[in-house]
Inverse folding.
C-alpha cells in the first residue's frame, strides 16, 4: 500500500539552465517529509513538529497530499489590504495567506532573472505588449508560443512587469506581489474575485466563526495561471492521483458489478 | 413453609419467595462488587473500574452537568491510559445562535477522496484490513449521453418509442448509480463527475426517529449526535438512513496509538467500541470550537463549505443566495442541512 512516487516538476527557468525539482514522498509521516497542499509540485509543505507529538501537517502515504493540518496557520503572513465593494463583518477578520514567492522561487532564480537578464540592457525592455516568438521560457509555460490562458487575447506583459520580473502588474502598471495574485486575476475575473472575497469561491481553513482567523488560499495555489483550463480538459484543476478506494465489504471479491456500462438490456 | 418453596411449581414458574431471596442476594452481591470496583484506587484496575462506571451511567442527554463531567473525566482517564498520551474529551454544548449548514460544489469536486481520508485522520475511525470505516463515500457518476441514434423503439411507454433524454432502458443525464470503488490512474476523469455523500444532519432525521433507546438525537446546532454508551447496536438507524451515512463497528475498532487524534468530543470522535453505530458529526470537536471540519480544510479544490445558516454574511448563506442549489432526496421530507451546489 505504501509506495514512493517521484514527481518531477519543472521550476523557474532562467537563461542559464533548466532545473527540475523532483519530490520524493516518504513512507510515513515524519519530520522533514515533503508533501503538497493543492497543486502537486507547486504547493509544497515540509513536515515539522509544531507541538510535542504534533506535526504541522499529516500527509497521505499513497499520494503525498496533505490530509490534515495540525496548525492551519503554519508559515502564513497577513493577506494585506483587499478592496471590497461592500462593507461586511468578514472583511475585518484576521486573514492570512501562505506566501507564494518562496514556492515560486524555490531555486532562487527569480531575482537572478531580473538582475542578470531582464535588466533593461541584456534584454531590452519591450516597447509594446505585442506577442512575439519566445526563444526562452517554454519550460515555464508549456506551449508558450501559443499561451493557453486568454486564448490569444492576453500576453506575458499583461500580467508580468516588463521592468521587474519579480512582480506582477495591475492595469496601471503598479506592481503586485506574487503573494497577492488575487489582485492580478481580479483585473479580468471580477465576479470570481467577489465570490472569493465572500468565501464561496476557493478555499479557506482555520476558524469558520465570524471574526475567527482564517487562512485564505490564493488563486495560484489551486490554478495554473498559465493554463487555467488545463488544455482541452477545461477543468480548472490539474489531475491528481486519487486516494485508495474504500475497503470492499467482506465477501465481495471485487467491484466489477458497479463497472457495468449502462445500455440496452440493463 | 416447606422446602419445596424453592422448587419450580407445577406451572413452571419460580415461587415468589425463592425469587425474592435469590434476587436480593444477587443485587447485594453486584452492588457491593460494583461499589468495590468503583472505589478501588489501584491503577492496574483503573480501566476496568472506569468501564464498570460507564455501564452505570445515564443517557448523556439526561445527565446533570456534574454527571456529564464525571463521565468525561472517566473517559479521559481511560483513553489516556489506553493510548499512552493525554487525551481530552470535550463536552461543549451547541453554540447559541448557530445552525450548521454544509455546501458542496459538485461541479468542482474532482473525486480525489482526500476528504474521506482526512475524516479518518480526524475522527478516529477503525482502520486496517480487518475493519475499515469511512464516514464519507465519494460516488463516481457517469456523464450521461444523448445520441439521436439511440432513439430506438425499445423504450417506455410501449409503442411511442422516442423518449427525449433517455427511456426505461437507456438512462440519459445523471443517474444515481454511482461507483464507490473507482480506481482510475488520475482524477478527475473526462467522462465522470463525483458526488461525495456523508451524514446530511437532517432536520427530521429518520435515524433519530427509529432509535429504540434514543441514544441518537439532534442537538440545537443541527448536528445529529450519538451517545455511544447507550447504543445497543440494533442498527435500525443504519437501515433508516436514506443517505447511507451510518457505519457500524462489527468488530473491535483498530486504532493505532500513534494515529489516534487525542482531541475528542464525547458526542463525536472519541474512540468507539465494538457494536455501536457511528457517523459524521461535522467534526463536532472542531466546529463547536470555531474551527472548520477536516474535510473542508483538506479539499484541494475548495469544493466544501461550512458555516452558520443563521448568519446572513456566512459563506453558506452566500452560497444559498447566489448558486444553484439542491439537496438529496427532498421527497423524504428529511430537510437535510447538506446542500449541493453548482457555479
Amino acid at each position: 500500500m505504501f509506495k514512493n512516487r517521484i514527481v518531477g516538476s519543472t521550476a523557474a527557468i532562467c537563461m542559464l539552465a533548466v532545473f527540475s525539482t523532483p519530490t520524493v514522498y516518504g513512507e510515513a509521516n515524519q519530520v522533514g517529509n515533503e508533501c503538497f497542499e493543492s497543486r502537486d509540485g507547486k504547493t509544497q509543505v515540509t513536515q515539522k513538529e509544531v507541538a510535542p507529538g504534533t506535526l504541522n501537517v499529516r500527509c497521505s502515504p499513497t499520494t503525498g497530499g496533505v490530509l490534515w493540518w495540525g496548525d492551519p496557520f503554519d508559515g502564513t503572513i497577513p493577506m494585506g489590504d483587499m478592496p471590497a465593494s461592500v462593507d461586511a463583518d468578514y472583511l475585518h477578520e484576521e486573514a492570512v495567506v501562505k506566501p507564494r514567492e518562496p514556492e515560486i522561487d524555490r531555486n532562487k532564480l527569480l531575482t537572478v532573472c531580473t538582475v542578470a537578464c531582464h535588466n533593461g540592457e541584456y534584454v531590452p525592455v519591450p516597447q509594446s505588449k505585442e506577442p512575439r516568438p519566445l526563444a526562452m521560457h517554454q519550460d515555464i509555460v508549456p506551449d508558450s508560443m501559443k499561451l493557453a490562458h486568454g486564448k490569444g487575447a492576453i500576453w506575458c506583459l499583461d500580467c508580468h512587469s516588463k521592468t521587474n520580473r519579480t512582480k506582477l502588474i495591475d492595469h496601471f502598471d503598479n506592481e503586485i506581489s506574487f503573494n497577492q495574485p488575487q489582485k492580478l486575476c481580479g483585473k479580468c475575473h471580477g465576479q470570481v474575485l467577489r465570490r472569493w472575497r465572500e468565501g464561496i469561491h476557493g478555499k479557506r481553513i482555520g476558524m469558520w466563526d465570524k471574526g475567527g482567523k482564517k487562512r485564505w488560499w490564493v488563486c495560484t495555489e489551486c490554478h495554473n495561471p498559465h493554463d487555467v483550463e488545463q488544455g482541452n480538459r477545461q477543468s480548472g484543476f490539474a489531475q491528481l492521483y486519487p486516494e485508495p478506494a474504500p475497503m470492499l465489504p467482506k465477501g465481495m471479491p471485487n467491484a466489477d458489478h458497479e463497472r457495468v456500462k449502462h445500455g440496452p438490456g440493463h | 413453609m416447606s422446602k419445596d418453596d424453592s422448587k419450580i411449581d407445577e406451572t413452571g414458574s419460580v415461587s415468589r419467595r425463592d425469587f425474592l431471596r435469590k434476587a436480593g442476594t444477587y443485587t447485594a452481591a453486584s452492588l457491593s462488587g460494583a461499589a468495590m470496583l468503583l472505589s478501588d484506587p489501584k491503577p492496574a484496575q483503573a480501566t476496568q473500574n472506569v468501564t464498570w462506571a460507564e455501564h452505570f451511567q445515564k443517557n448523556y442527554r439526561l445527565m446533570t452537568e456534574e454527571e456529564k463531567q464525571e463521565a468525561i473525566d472517566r473517559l479521559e482517564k481511560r483513553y489516556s491510559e489506553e493510548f499512552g498520551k493525554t487525551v481530552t474529551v470535550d463536552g461543549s454544548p451547541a453554540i447559541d445562535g448557530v445552525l450548521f449548514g454544509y455546501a458542496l460544489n459538485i461541479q468542482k469536486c474532482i473525486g480525489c477522496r482526500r476528504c474521506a481520508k482526512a475524516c479518518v485522520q480526524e475522527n478516529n475511525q477503525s482502520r486496517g484490513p480487518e475493519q475499515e470505516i469511512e464516514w464519507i463515500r465519494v460516488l463516481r457518476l457517469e456523464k450521461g449521453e444523448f445520441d439521436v441514434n439511440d432513439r430506438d423503439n425499445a423504450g417506455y411507454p410501449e409503442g411511442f418509442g422516442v423518449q427525449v433524454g433517455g427511456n426505461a432502458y437507456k438512462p440519459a443525464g445523471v443517474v444515481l448509480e454511482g461507483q464507490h470503488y473507482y480506481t482510475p490512474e488520475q482524477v478527475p476523469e473526462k467522462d465522470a463527475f463525483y458526488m461525495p455523500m456523508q451524514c446530511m444532519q437532517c432536520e427530521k432525521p429518520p435515524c433519530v426517529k427509529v432509535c429504540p433507546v434514543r441514544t441518537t438525537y439532534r442537538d440545537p446546532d443541527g448536528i445529529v449526535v450519538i451517545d455511544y454508551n447507550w447504543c445497543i447496536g440494533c442498527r435500525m438507524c443504519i437501515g433508516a438512513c436514506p443517505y447511507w451515512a451510518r457505519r457500524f463497528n462489527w468488530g473491535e475498532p483498530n486504532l493505532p496509538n500513534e494515529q489516534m487524534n487525542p482531541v475528542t468530543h464525547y458526542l463525536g470522535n472519541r474512540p468507539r467500541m465494538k457494536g455501536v453505530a457511528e457517523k459524521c458529526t461535522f467534526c463536532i470537536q472542531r466546529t463547536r470550537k470555531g474551527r472548520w471540519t477536516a474535510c473542508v480544510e483538506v479539499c484541494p479544490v475548495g469544493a466544501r463549505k461550512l458555516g452558520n445558516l443563521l448568519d446572513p454574511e456566512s459563506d453558506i448563506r452566500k452560497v444559498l443566495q447566489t448558486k444553484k442549489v439542491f439537496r438529496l432526496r427532498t421527497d423524504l421530507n428529511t430537510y437535510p442541512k447538506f446542500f449541493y451546489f453548482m457555479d
The first strand of chain B starts at residue 88 and ends at 90. Chain B has two domains: 15-81, 100-139+196-342. Confidence is low (pLDDT under 50) at residues 1-12, 33-44, 171-176 of chain B.
